[in-house]
Design goal:
- The chain is an alpha+beta fold.
- Helix content is 26%, strand content 31%.
- The chain has a 10-stranded antiparallel sheet with strand order 2-3-4-5-1-10-9-8-6-7. Strands 20, 21, 22, 25, 26, 27 and 28 form a 7-stranded mixed sheet that branches. A 5-stranded antiparallel sheet has the order 11-19-18-17-12.
- Pfam families: DUF6119.
- This is DUF6119 family protein.
- It comes from Kribbella deserti.
Length: 542
């Protein structure tokens, strides 16, 4: 038997108050006299004919209007008390009846982390925190360890985990995220309360720290958590004050080549056109937002093409905002519309790692990233492409952007974007979208790994010969990879990068150093255009 279990938040009462107000339920009586099992409810959905049956009628005579084919979804919820906590055990569609704000988030994951055999994991569900990318499910064909699942424990938000239980008398298989699912062969529900007591006992342990201590590093906050409103208000005040402690980046990848500009809609009224979702442009537009409106919730952002058509679904500004806020001694980060609590020691570790990286911003003194100019420039379809071409021509660097090493039909590699006479391999990215830095660190790490390949060396020697003719191409010992990042946030990159970007860069630096290379950072100043009020709304972006 599989049991699906939800722990309800402190203060929950084992009665109908923890169910959705719109849920139509029937109270059930018990055959078993157990004071801990307080209430049970039956849930029946509307009777409907399956949609596929109506589709099938185009091929066969099925009489889909007949009542005999109607089926109703069924479910049940059993509320059990254990100590001062309330647990909901659901069957069928019963989980739909629980009021989401009462659910203790991460409960199931914690039980699994405490109760799973570290050598008998079967699967995980993860999401990269630095972006709003889709969840990734990784399943092993046989039982394995955490290393077999290839999780980046500092970058990935582990949302669900499954495997074989250490105590096979408790359950054979366990899987957990917010809810917990346990397989209990030959289980009698009359013993349900004792099983729930065991579940909460395992939940209270800290055994997970031995193999899964990273779970404490980054913890998501549920939207119903009262702290979220406090944090949102704090960011709103920062925006009103024009603080550079808030930055912006699109939450989802989209067709950047089709992008012409962004439009901000303030409270369904005023519309502003901005070249990029950067600090200067956004703050200028927010200045026109009425005081009673929320900058995060009442400002919509649209990515728009040259014809004024939206190329991406509109999102609230909160989905674009990146911020770090301290509240009551705890550290919180806003990314892709979600708040995360970050462990203090983890923050200290990453900041220390990044402060140790050489910064050659002043030595390189790279040209500024002028958004409006680069958008209009015809040398390349992208701002990054135009920037690299212009910089290569101005500084006499070798241009390797889009000049790929072709290993095979399906395997290609870009060594770097620009190569300097001092053997610096510049990899250039603007920190203007959630996936850009992921691409940057991947480019650097992949290039470092491929260094010894003959085709790689041939391409490198060809580029080197254009700027240093007659000289031998750089060796591993004197080559230096440089992460050149364009940002409008003031200060050095080690201080100004958004925290999750710091995590990515710190890991990249370690990987490249292990490969025997020197690594450095270089900041590129971003110069943004003004926010321009749009007098007439385009119907495509309403």
């Amino acid at each position: 038997m599989w049991l699906t279990i939800y722990l309800l938040r402190n203060g929950a009462v084992a009665d109908q108050s923890v169910l959705r107000s719109k849920a139509t339920v029937t109270n059930l009586s018990f055959r078993v006299d157990d004071p801990k099992i307080r209430n049970a409810f039956f849930l029946q959905g509307e009777s409907v004919v399956p949609k596929w049956l109506k589709d099938l009628e185009s091929l066969v005579v099925a009489n889909s209007s007949s009542a005999e084919y109607e089926r109703a979804s069924l479910g049940a919820v059993v509320l059990v008390e254990s100590g001062d906590r309330v647990v909901a055990v659901t069957f069928g569609t019963g989980f739909l009846a629980i009021e989401p704000s009462w659910i203790e988030r991460g409960f199931g994951l914690r039980v699994v982390a405490n109760g799973v055999s570290a050598r008998r994991l079967r699967g995980v569900q993860t999401r990269v925190i630095a972006s709003n990318s889709r969840d990734q499910y990784t399943l092993l064909p046989v039982d394995g360890e955490l290393a077999d699942l290839r999780i980046e424990v500092d970058e990935d938000w582990l949302r669900q985990m499954s495997g074989k239980a250490t105590d096979q008398d408790f359950a054979s298989t366990i899987a957990g995220a917010d809810s917990l699912r346990i397989a209990v062969p030959k289980f009698d529900l009359s013993r349900l309360s004792s099983k729930i007591d065991k579940v909460l006992e395992i939940y209270s342990l800290d055994d997970y720290k031995e193999h899964f201590s990273f779970l404490d590093q980054i913890v998501p906050l549920d939207k119903s958590n009262p702290v979220v409103e406090v944090l949102d208000n704090a960011v709103g005040e920062l925006l009103r004050d024009g603080s550079t402690d808030v930055s912006f980046a699109p939450p989802d990848p989209f067709d950047m080549e089709a992008l012409d500009h962004y439009e901000l809609v303030l409270g369904h009224k005023d519309r502003y056109s901005i070249p990029d979702v950067d600090h200067t442009s956004v703050i200028e537009a927010i200045d026109a937002l009425s005081p009673e409106k929320s900058p995060l919730e009442d400002v919509m952002v649209y990515a728009v093409d040259a014809d004024g058509s939206a190329i991406q679904r509109g999102s609230r500004l909160k989905a674009y905002a990146r911020a770090e806020v301290s509240h009551e001694g705890n550290n919180y980060l806003l990314s892709s519309g979600l708040w995360f609590e970050v462990e203090k020691n983890f923050v200290k570790k990453i900041n220390a790692d990044l402060s140790d990286v050489e910064d050659i911003t002043n030595d390189l003194n790279l040209p500024p990233w002028v958004s409006e100019f680069l958008k209009e420039d015809e040398k390349d379809k992208t701002k990054e492409g135009s920037y690299n071409i212009i910089t290569a021509e101005d500084r006499k660097y070798a241009l390797l952007d889009k000049n790929l090493v072709v290993f095979s039909q399906y395997e290609r590699l870009e060594i770097c974007d620009l190569l300097t006479p001092d053997a610096e391999l510049l990899c250039v990215k603007a920190a203007t979208d959630s996936s850009s830095l992921s691409h940057l660190v991947a480019q650097v790490e992949n290039s470092a790994r491929a260094w010894e390949d003959e085709l790689y060396q041939a391409k490198l020697a060809e580029a080197w010969g254009k700027i240093c003719p007659g000289q031998a191409a750089p060796a591993r010992s004197n080559a230096k990879f440089v992460l050149a990042i364009a940002t409008d946030r003031p200060g050095s990159l080690s201080e100004s990068l958004f925290f999750f970007a710091k995590v990515q860069v710190a890991h990249c630096v370690k990987a490249v150093r292990r490969a025997g290379f020197k690594v450095a950072l270089a900041r590129i100043e971003v110069e943004s255009g003004p926010a321009t009020k749009v007098e007439k709304e385009s119907s495509e972006t309403k």
